[in-house]
Each structure stands twice: as C-alpha cells, then as structure tokens.
Write a structure and sequence with these properties.
The protein is α+β, with helices and mostly antiparallel strands. The protein contains 4 helices and 3 strands, in the order ααβαβαβ. It has 2 domains: 39 residues, no CATH class; 61 residues, no CATH class. The radius of gyration is 16 Å and the shape is flat.
C-alpha cells in the first residue's frame, strides 16, 4: 500500500531500469524470429466511486512522467459498468500506453 503513495517517485527511480528492458526484450525476440510475442498495448486503470478528480490527477501525473494516457473506449466502459453491478456509483477508466 505504501508504494501506491510513492508511485511517482518510485516510477522516476525505476524508469531508467525498466525502459531499456523492453527494447532489450524486443531485440532478443527479433533475433530468434519471434518479435510477434511482444505486445506493447499498455494497460487500463479502473477507478471506482466518486473519483474522477483523482483519476484525472493520476493521468496528469503519468503524462509528466512521459507516459501517454487516453480515455478508454466507450464499449470497455460499458462492459466494466455492467460487470460491476448496481452497487458501483461511478467508474473512470483510462488507458496508459507505452511510448513508441
């Protein structure tokens, strides 16, 4: 839980280690003819309840760290809401995408 509160600082420290690893993996997979195994699609963050302000602040924080963000597709949001049921008051979904 503590890591969540230090996310921005931790990301800044880990980024120099993590970013080159993707390129290294891509290079290795290309060498063995299996570049198709690497998918760089990003991930979604789902925020429950009345938290749109927090979700927007998180997206701004990610952009400051050089991580592209974009709203989730409407269909994904619709399916997420349906699967959560009526007890869910609100959902904010954003997609974090790696730089290319």
């Amino acid at each position: 839980m503590l890591a969540a509160f230090r996310r921005e600082r931790n990301t800044r420290h880990l980024a120099p280690i993590v970013r080159p690893s993707v390129e290294a993996l891509e290079r290795l997979l290309t060498e063995i003819g299996r570049r198709d195994l690497l998918k760089r699609n990003g991930h979604y963050e789902v925020w429950l309840g009345h938290c749109s302000g927090l979700a927007l602040a998180q997206a701004d924080s990610m952009r400051r760290l050089g991580i592209r963000t974009e709203p989730a597709p409407r269909e994904l949001l619709r399916r997420t809401l349906r699967s959560l049921g009526p007890e869910c008051r609100g959902v904010v979904v954003s997609r974090l995408r790696p730089r290319r």
